[in-house]
Amino acid sequence: MVARNTEEPHRASTPLELLFDLCFVVAVSQAARELNDNLSRNHFSSGFVGYITVFFAIWWAWVNFTWFASAYDADDTPYRLLTFVQIVGVLILAAGVPAAFVHSDFTVMTIGYVVMRVALVTQWLRAASGDPSGRSAARRYAGAVTAVQIGWVARLFLPHVAGEVAFPVLALAEMLVPAWAERGGRGTSWHPQHISERYGLFTLIVLGECVAAATAAMQSATTSGLSAPQVGVAAGGLLLIFGLWWWYFEHPSEEGLRESRNSAFLWGYAHYAVFASIAALGAGLEVAAESTRRGSGVSPTTAGAAIAISVAVYLVVTGAVQVRLNPTGVLKTRFIIPFAAVILVVGWSARTLSIGFALPILGLIVVGLVLLDRLAPTLHRAVDDPSTPSLA
Fold first, then answer.
1. Interval 201-221: pLDDT, tens
2. Is 343 a residue whose pLDDT tops 60?
3. Same domain assignment for residues 28 and 123
């Protein structure tokens, strides 16, 4: 197993990688469903805590596979078989999501991780054997991943409070592994185009959760008799999906990653918030649709707040990393925070405005932000050069 060429042209995701991603859809859907259940019962705080912990476990498993594959996808028989073993681990992890979310019982999810990590460490050892220039980094990855995984297994035997404390400690240790393993030497030869595409595809997959929620809202509106709130939720949900898609894919990350490889850690880690906020938006849209049904006990404020927080986090985080990769887009930082603040206010006012009215407003705000972003280069020139003709 040798490293892939970082300048390999037309490097695209493989069918095996896409199969791996589709298996993760199950885990993401489980987490979104559990969040939906908690929001439906107006358990906002407990639902939020359970969601961010469970989603971290899902996201980090995907990250482990994706970055290794970008550097060392040999597509030989051992690589394919070991990837199949990782897929089995993903499905076990997905099966454990409900218990982890509701009871903080990560036993099944940890078993899934053990299965995935046995295969992953084997892959790193194969890379260490076949790639002399990257041997040091590969060995550090294999050793560190093994050590942290032993920590996760040991956590299962701790008392409840100690286990709760150990979770963020071990999560931090996980995220420090790449920085430690990549220090000095050549490091791993991940491919900027490939990594950018992989993250973009997973963004689309998670957006599918929002599409499903918007479809459910439209189905509810057409089968139970049209009402203004139901139509508003469906229309607002679609506007949000379209706007968020445009906001992300308007600025591809490939060139920025190629020119600033040191920003890759920040960019990759920031996508935890990106993926988690999109999936949470899907759960929020389902709750919003449910709140419009007659006799529903779901609070419109809970639904509106969940949607607003998800959208605001998504916009701020994606905007920040886009500016980091492309500093010439600094004008974006001048208007994204005010827009996010307005989104939060509108979301929390869902009870007063009604959820069917608040969601289209949120959708229009996001569309307005996208349009302003497209005009940003012209506005930036106008700011830098007062002699530039007015847009009017």
1. 999 999 988 888 778 767 766
2. yes
3. yes
Closest to 158 in 3D by CA, of 121, 79, 104: 104
Instruction: Quickly list H helices, 96-134.
Output: 97-103, 107-130
5 belongs to a structural domain = no
Q: Contact, 110 vs 85, CB < 8 A?
A: no
The single residue listed with the structure tokens 């701790």 is 158
The span from the CA of 174 to the CA of 149, in Å, is 9
Report the C-alpha gap between 144 and 133 in whole angstroms: 19
**237 touches 214 (CB < 8 A):** yes
CA distance 274 to 188: 24
CB 292 within 8 A of CB 356: yes
Final residue of a structural domain among 117, 152, 181: 181
Residue 389: inside a domain, yes or no? no
State the pTM of this model: 0.89
The answer to whether residues 318 and 261 belong to one domain is: yes
- pLDDT of 109-128, one tens digit each? 999 999 999 999 999 999 99
Distance of alpha carbon 343 from alpha carbon 365, whole angstroms: 7
